[in-house]
Amino acid sequence: MPDPDSPAGVRGSADPTPVVPGSAGEVAAPGSAGEVAELLRSTTGTVVPVGAGTKTGWAAPATSCDLLLRTTGLDRVTEYAPGDLVVVAEAGVPLAALQEQLATHGQMLALDPPEQGATLGGILAANASGPRRLRYGTVRDLLIGVTVVLADGTVARSGGKVVKNVAGYDLGKLHTGAHGGLGIVVSTTWRLHPRPPAAATVTAPVRGSAAAGRLTARVARSTLTPTALELRWQRGESGTTGELVALFESIPASVRDQAPRCAALLAEEDAGRGSEAADPEARTTRGDEAVRIGAAPPAWFGERPVGQLVLRLAFAPSALPYVLDALPPGSRGTASAAVGVAYAAVPPAIDLAALRAALARWDGSAVVLAADPELRPGLDHWGPTGDAFGLMTRVKDRFDPERRLSPGRLLGGL
Amino acid sequence: MLARTRASFHHSIGTYRQVESVSSTRQDRPGRRPLREDANDGARAGALADRLRAAVGAAKVLTDPAQLRTYACDGLATVRVTPSVVVLAERREDVVAAVRLCAGAGVPFVARGSGTGLSGGAVPVADGVLIVLSRLRAVRSVDPGNARVVVEPGVINLWVTREAAPYGQAYAPDPSSQQVCSIGGNVAENAGGAHCLKYGFTVNHVMGAEVVLPDGEVVHLGGIAPEHPGFDLLGAFVGSEGTLGIATEVTVRTVQAPESVRTMLVGFHSVADAAGTVSDIIAGGILPAAVEMMDALAIEAAEAAVRCGYPQGAVAVLVIELDGPRVEVDEQFLQVERIAAARHAFETRIARDEDERALMWKGRKSAFAAVGRISPAYYVQDGVIPRTKLPEVLDEVGRLADAAGIRVANVFHAGDGNLHPLILFDDKVEGAAHAAEQLGFAILDLCVASGGSITGEHGVGVEKKSRMAVQFSADDLDTMHRLRCAFDPAGLANPGKQFPTPRLCGERPGVRTAASEDHDPALGEVF
Question: Where does the FAD-binding PCMH-type domain lie (chain A) (predicted)?
Fold first, then answer.
């Protein structure tokens, strides 16, 4: 949990990165949206919002922080309509606490980023996701309404409390991943899903980056409906190794049906002889080196790698093998294999610009999630800006003309 | 917009019988308040025609009044405004050239796809340019390995699935007009469809877009890959009803076609039982691909039109479709049958083959047009309520209808609480159309009061912009306007749509221009 006496060193369980190098200014922890608005109206300095502080390293360091605004005081679940599968909760509500409440009705918010203690507002602002994005999507697919306090203290709402709604601009999308740079999210409204009653996993060994791509494609292009398809990988001198886990979550009959079918598909592919898979049973029971069916996912499932320099890579999904090959030996991490996202702990000496240039072939990007303090000065956090950067700047100027909010934390120093 | 007279009413709502008479009496919408008071846009738009011809080729530029009238309306057939110039764009460069010329001359422009929108989002501006995108019909790439299809904006929705089908994939958003509506229009309106209950809307399936901004600059938002660094401008662009720019290329994601699809038709003696069944299905942890409801009047109309053979004597029917792995669908299908039986379903039919499934959907999908069989004219509304409030809201809709002496047929996406009341009236009766419109707005206000929305999938357009101030506060709308100003500071892209009051971007927050001529004075008080 954050240490209130140490504003510059907001700490989460996983990420000790300060939002601003050196010492920050004052700290405030307002208890209501009205208090947030009043703070912004009654002050003129720079403001950096932060939730539990578990992902402060995901954005570039702020260029200034007169006021560190903790949203953890906004901790009420204000409306929960189980029959409508909709919940309204303030930004500082921890995801885990919300899930606990939803579980009593057999429901969930289908977001599973691994950071312990993370708040809804922080997850939204950082656009954090986890393995189940394969089935349920990310924040942008589940957020149906948002209330935001703008830099001038204006309180504005967009979206609503119904899933289907096309009235007005969907400003929730704009704040997703914006790290508070366009406004401070104070309340969030989400679409919920029923909690599936049964689960099974299928784990396959991965020998080589090409195999990672083939195994992933085999499952992704089938009629199977895994909730997640996660890869754990490491790059050695002799190539990539790891394991692929398909997670099935549904009614028991479906899980019992799909897991063995998935195992057979993966065993076929693993054998590299798709047409010769006469006895998939035999291939699924070779012990550690073979495809196996289990109940719970392995311990690494959904965790992000830890290291001196951690990146989030996003790319055209089919480019997974090439992206892995573009990483230097010593890199390791996980990937949401079928959606084109990987998390990589890379050697700190990596040539980030060269990696980004290589990834561009697959529409790819590499952004920093964590970096040791000595690496942070001069680090290009987000990478190159595209042709829409001028437009992004104009959006920033309209929402925050005085550049008060999270200054410098976003793409291109916005 | 709330119209005060019968004549102006014709410009505000969708009836399907009055198009002829309206077009013969009023071609243009008079009295439109220009955004720029000093601009003589009519003359400027005319002068622009020669430059447009030089830029894109004379054959693509229409100025003949008879030809221009062809483009006077979209699916909201009674709002008709003839543009000064039509550009039939054939490639991206045509769009860029047309937009740049408009921007340079300060002339407003409106983009149009197939013109099937139901809220008047593609209605031209009288003194502006209409940029028609339906000739931009190239499928740029079909990429099953990445589950992406890249298309030009004029490509028809159903073509995307047709392209992806050989690879076992499909494009999920399926608006009822999917055989004719364009992807560009779908992006502008964030189109939905019967299956968005499970699969989401257009915004959940658009990964990237090439956009011509209102000043002619071309930008690329999103792409093949997910999570491009920077603000999610793509997410805000989808559903912006043509007010933020024109998409000239769209990248969508495709989904794997399900192993099994099963459909049932269930008859009930009461709307409450049908609505209760929907709630029980959801409470049972089942997420159907689609749950559609029709009430007695809608069933009567559908039977008269397409003889779909719905259960006799039903006060409400549900069409329920499940898809996914066979084992899962089969078990949950049985569970749905049991839930319906417990809610006193008196007849449950299960489609045994594709033909039977098609017939079940035919009654539902033809319901709008079918209402024409039982009423001289009708008006389609589109509102959303929390699903659990279906029974009470439908009761209240019935009370409102009775009080107004107007019949209302209800056809809707019950799973999402997305109502489509079909308000029946006789256009030969003086004042009947106006009364129908008033009832429609009362129903929308009821939706908002119930915690819902004034539109689930048809958009705001010109039709419902006065209702935006019912759903959103002045601060909410001002904040949305900030986004508009970032994209379009001159206010040239599809002006007069989606938002209730035209405003300039330089205005200080809180200072607003006078209400527009079609603005409800009562709402002007709060906005």
Answer: 20-195
A113-164 pLDDT per residue, tens: 999 999 999 999 999 999 999 999 999 999 999 999 999 999 999 999 999 9
- CB-based contact A83 B226, cutoff 8 Å: no
B374 touches B301 (CB < 8 A): yes
Global ipTM: 0.93
Q: What are the chain A neighbours of B336 within 8 Å (beta carbons)? A: none
* Sheet-wide strand order for A47-50: A26-28, A67-70, A47-50
Residues near B498 by beta carbon (within 8 Å), at least 6 away in sequence: A168, B121, B240, B241, B243, B459, B460, B461, B465, B468
Model pTM score: 0.91
Q: Which chain B residue shows the shortest CA-CA distance from A165?
A: B456
Rounded Cα–Cα distance for residues B158 and B191 (Å) = 13
Distance from CA of A187 to the nearest CA of B (A): 14
- Residue for token pair 């909690």: A195
- List Cβ neighbours of A299 (8 Å cut-off, separation of 6 or more): none
Tens-place pLDDT, residues A28-73: 999 999 999 999 999 999 999 999 999 999 999 999 999 999 999 9
Task: Give the angle subtended at the CA of B231 by the CAs of B225 and B235, to the nearest 5°.
Answer: 70
Determine the pLDDT at residue A282. Answer: 42
Residue A16: pLDDT band with limits 50, 70, 90: low
Name the average pLDDT for chain A: 92
Closest Cβ opposite residue A340 in set B226, B256, B418: B226
Tokens of A263: 């195992």
For the segment B435-464, the average pLDDT, to the nearest whole number, is: 95
Q: Side chain identity at A244, as an amino acid letter?
A: L
Q: Do B231 and A178 touch (CB under 8 A)?
A: yes
Contact: A395, B328; criterion CB under 8 Å: no
Answer whether B129's CB lies under 8 Å from B104's CB. no
SS3 category, A203: strand
Q: Do B236 and A171 touch (CB under 8 A)?
A: yes
Shortest CB distance from A157 goes to which of B224, B457, B476? B476
In whole angstroms, how far apart are CA B44 and each of A385, B40, B276, B306? 37, 7, 58, 50
Length of chain A: 414
CATH of B42-132, one of 3.40.190.10, 3.40.50.300, 3.30.43.10, 2.40.240.10: 3.30.43.10
Checking if the pLDDT of A214 tops 60, the result is yes
Q: Which residues of A touch B455 (CB under 8 A)?
A: 165-167
pLDDT digits over A161-206, tens only?
999 999 999 999 999 999 999 999 999 999 999 999 999 999 999 9
